[in-house]
Amino acid sequence: MHQGQIQMSVHDFARRVDYATALGLVLAHARQTPQPVTRVPLTQATGRVAAHAVQATSARPPADISALDGYAFAHADMLAQGSLPVDGRTVAGDRPAALAAGHARAILTGARIPAGADCVMAVERMTLGAGDQVAPATALAQAGANIRYRGEEFGAGDVLVRAGQMLDWRHVALLASQGMRDVAVARRPRVCVLSNGAELAADAPGACADSNTPMLAAMLGSAGARVRTCSVASDDVAMQAAHLRAACTGTDVVVTTGGISVGGTDHMLDILLAMGARIVFRGVSIRPGKPFTMLEHDGRAVFCLPGNPGAAAICALAFVQPYLRVLTGAPADMAQVSATADFSADAPPDTTGFIPVSMRRGPQGWHFVRVPTAGASDIIAFSRADALLAASAENPVRAGQVAWAIPLHAPSALA
Ligand SMILES: Nc1nc2c(c(=O)[nH]1)N[C@H]1C(S)=C(S)[C@@H](COP(=O)(O)OP(=O)(O)OC[C@H]3O[C@@H](n4cnc5c(N)ncnc54)[C@H](O)[C@@H]3O)O[C@H]1N2
Ligand code: MOO
């Protein structure tokens, strides 16, 4: 279909944009479409993005406290008298009475320092003698020793979590230390992944298993999206249109794979245009992934990824993931990794080539090593690689020089 001259001007890739332009358009759209805010319990906050900055409501420690189990006393008294009688015991959670003049106080770790004391020594460094007198068994500690001072970690009003911070156990600990039980976060983007093509039917003569739907659900789900999927094992326009309309219902983002090139069964663009969608860009000068097309439908982003699984993965990593991050208020490129390239690569003019690389630790640090790939349909290259390097005429990869890459997995999975 659409073999005519006029039709081709909409459908072909003559007006494709370059990588930087496409990414800029993707991120600009995300910035003008912020996610609503919701509150989640701290136990469910990992992987969510803080909607606002959170400030400390109280200092930490909230008072001067003992770092040890031992005895608290006035340094000058111990220096003058050599030993001091013990006037009692203070434990964590107490509000201790002031130290009786010329006395020591038994004190436990985390307990408040009684007024009048300015030094703590560990119990194993002191001897307790007749008449409940304590004396240093070793050299007397310095004044101020073994006291954790009020606010030495942070003060009331200090920023504990920045807006846009991806939360994990570190922030959970900080917020819990303030008595907080929940936190305001951006709602998880609701994504529908829709694959299409008659070859996806199990009984098709040349059946092809749908790997794109599970792949993208896994990738975008681990990037924080709430993903639902739909596999349309047909090239029928009416059926695909019905599923695309359903995909748009109740979602923030729609991701399609397949049916976006210029073949006779590539219907995604026509269906979306008929639904009133607007083209943001049609095609990108990247390899693989050239047919990647972005539309906007009723305010939501619709990303049409090529059906070739390797190309679909690259477009999702390079564009959809940053989109989802920015949508939730997180920085777009928080996940880039750098290392020294151990190979050189140029890209054809006006094209950005994506190169899978593995990361190897050498005596001088980490290196990017090229992973062979069969191209746009290749998915095994990704499981042999750790990151994805972008090479262009302006930014060629040069052996011995530092390069930046999009990681394919969490750093803990590095061999
Ligand atoms: N005349 C031109 N033809 C093509 C061009 C071009 O510029 N001019 N671009 C080529 C490029 S580059 C790509 S990439 C493909 C993209 O085509 P589509 O996005 O329309 O994808 P399909 O044709 O539907 O499928 C391509 C390929 O991928 C397999 N596939 C599809 N869906 C899935 C899935 N869910 N899971 C696994 N594999 C899937 C499908 O069987 C095909 O082998 O267009 C070129 N053509
Ligand atoms: O750009 Mo296609 O995605 O190379 O096969």
From TrEMBL:
Domain of life: Bacteria
Keyword Metal-binding listed: yes
GO-annotated cellular components: cytosol
Enzyme Commission code: 2.10.1.1
Keyword terms, alphabetized: Magnesium, Metal-binding, Molybdenum, Molybdenum cofactor biosynthesis, Transferase
Requisite cofactors: Mg(2+)
Pathway annotation from the record: Cofactor biosynthesis; molybdopterin biosynthesis
Catalytic activity as recorded in UniProt: adenylyl-molybdopterin + molybdate = Mo-molybdopterin + AMP + H(+)
MoaB/Mog domain boundaries: 192-326
GO annotation terms (biological process): Mo-molybdopterin cofactor biosynthetic process
Entry annotated with the keyword Transferase: yes
CDD domains: MoeA
InterPro entries: MoaB/Mog-like_dom_sf, MoaB/Mog_dom, MoeA-like, MoeA_C_domain_IV_sf, MoeA_linker/N, MoeA_linker/N_sf
UniProt-recorded Gene Ontology molecular function terms: metal ion binding; molybdopterin molybdotransferase activity
Described purpose of this protein according to its UniProt entry: Catalyzes the insertion of molybdate into adenylated molybdopterin with the concomitant release of AMP.
Protein family (similarity comment): Belongs to the MoeA family.
Stated name of the protein: Molybdopterin molybdenumtransferase
